[in-house]
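From the shared-data thread, chain only:
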Amino acid sequence: MKIANQSKTLTFLSALLLGATLGAAPARAADKAYQVTGPVLEVNDSSVTVQKGKEKWQLARTKDTKVTGDLKVGAKVTIMYTMTATSIEAKGGEAKADAKAEKAGKDAKPAEAPAKK
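Structure, as tokens:
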């Protein structure tokens, strides 16, 4: 009974993810899609771990992640994902711009006085 409930839950979560993915596709048209394929090593409500060659890939998943089929340890899966920044911290950008402006000012030649007639 517990396995049947988990399977239904995963199917439901998969359907939600697919719907969210299709609904958000126009908004994220600029995001490049990637995929990883391999056997599932671990699966839980928040992530799926897949073996790709010698590497283990752990991908986060949410309630909106669409899952089709029976997602369980040992199953071969193909996971589609995107890489989207969640935050960006820029440092030092203004100092470089100021240095370029200062250098431009030093390299500039003073205006010449008009020639006398």
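The mean pLDDT is 80.
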